[in-house]
Amino acid sequence: MTIEVRVPTLGESVTEATVATWFKKPGDAVAVDEMLCELETDKVTVEVPSPSAGVMGEIVAAEGETVGVNALLATITAGEGTAPAPAPAAAPAPAAAPAASGGSVDVMVPTLGESVTEATVSTWFKQVGESVAQDEMLCELETDKVSVEVPAPAAGVLAEIVAPEGATVDASAKLAVISGAAAGATMAPAAVAAAPGTATTTGKDVANAPSAEKAMAEAGLSAGQVSGTGRDGRIMKEDVARAVATASAPAPAAAVPSPAAQAPRAPVAAQDEAREERVRMTRLRQTIAKRLKDAQNAAAILTTFNEVDMTEVMALRNEYKELFLKKHGVKLGFMSFFTKACCHALKEVPEVNAEIDGTDIVYKNFVHMGVAAGTPQGLVVPVIRDADAMSFADIEKAIAEKGKRARDGKLSMAEMQGGTFTISNGGVYGSLMSSPILNPPQSGILGMHKIQDRPMAINGEVKIRPMMYLALSYDHRIVDGKGAVTFLVRVKEALEDPRRLLMDL
């Protein structure tokens, strides 16, 4: 009987993937759930397991080919060669490996990213005694940047939870134990725990992901400068992005002081305390609090205000929004106009796009635009890299994709590092005016607010116009008042007459 191997569900809004690596070739014996190939999407890497034991037949989609969801990848002739395939040479069994059946597998903390040394166990999806399938999500970890889901390395029964909810674990800690797993399944943790970048020393030579090779070439990095987290130390696209971000990112902030080291809490009446609810701050919320307070302590923050008449932007948007959506597949919003206007103004006032490093001022000849986004977990600032070189459509697509990933808690650390300037839109929540706080080490942040009809004097007549207050908070240590006001005026001019953006005026 012939079994078809098809592309699995790739996730929300992901419709296609690239075949990165085949681990089997026609004629090889395969076991049930043994990994056959690896697919790459623009968001994640997906391993495709064998749906049946048998012999590998035809490979329909070759390496490097782009395939859609449910596309045919290969065929397997079932009922032949059903003996489990031997473990890959890249992961030899350790001396204390368990027996072939009824063994146990340790669930370890996965790779958390550069400069992240610990995480907090936020949620366990399984309880002790429950059966688990391979790659089924066991728990979720929370770092000061992102949430990390931990999949089961093997099928079996969850025998022990070593790190309960709320526990803080380091990057090499054991989280749980799965019993009743096959011995072959214990090879995966061994391979993951191996030193990064050792793919060339394993028994199986697996090439780096094609997208990773391209990204390394563009960034001028060699394979030795990137730590691979893929199968057998294979370098993935996100590994390259992490290496690039680490090279340009400032040193990580110091740990948040423990509650005991902070100011004591004011006395509370007993009858009131009984009606209170105490909830531990998430690591993300602790980091937000620490960074914002550091910004106030370190920078000389000053805010200047102006207002912009949104008539022309709204008219332009209403005129072209249907054509824009039809051609580019994304809605035309206000954020692309503000992003373009800020990039234009930053060229004229470069100190707003700079940062202080000791006694030096570092001017950025590019714009990596941070777009603040509110999520159920707290405020995050995904970065749109090289926004100054992007079109309106590219900016809108990037904002939509980053915003969704932020709300889903799927942003990587690399996607939130390296920003040079930030835009924060409090208007979506109804804010009429506010004074935003800098996102260090940046020297400027633009606050957008609610659009509200107000009476304005236009050529000696009172007319109702859609107005928005703008606020620029800046570091007065390197940005003078003249520069800050000039920046905000240029943003106002570009928005009130969008044609200036096309003419570079």
From TrEMBL:
Point out the signal peptide segment: none
Source domain of life: Bacteria
Needed cofactors, names only, are: (R)-lipoate
Q: Which UniProt keywords apply?
A: Acyltransferase, Lipoyl, Transferase, Tricarboxylic acid cycle
Q: Which GO terms describe its molecular function?
A: dihydrolipoyllysine-residue succinyltransferase activity
List, as start-end ranges, the regions of compositional bias called Low complexity.
255-271
Which Pfam families does the record cross-reference, listed alphabetically? Answer: 2-oxoacid_dh, Biotin_lipoyl, E3_binding
Q: Does the keyword ATP-binding apply?
A: no
Q: What does this protein do?
A: E2 component of the 2-oxoglutarate dehydrogenase (OGDH) complex which catalyzes the second step in the conversion of 2-oxoglutarate to succinyl-CoA and CO(2).
Family according to the record: Belongs to the 2-oxoacid dehydrogenase family.
Q: What's the protein called, per UniProt?
A: Dihydrolipoyllysine-residue succinyltransferase component of 2-oxoglutarate dehydrogenase complex
Name the source organism.
Ruegeria haliotis
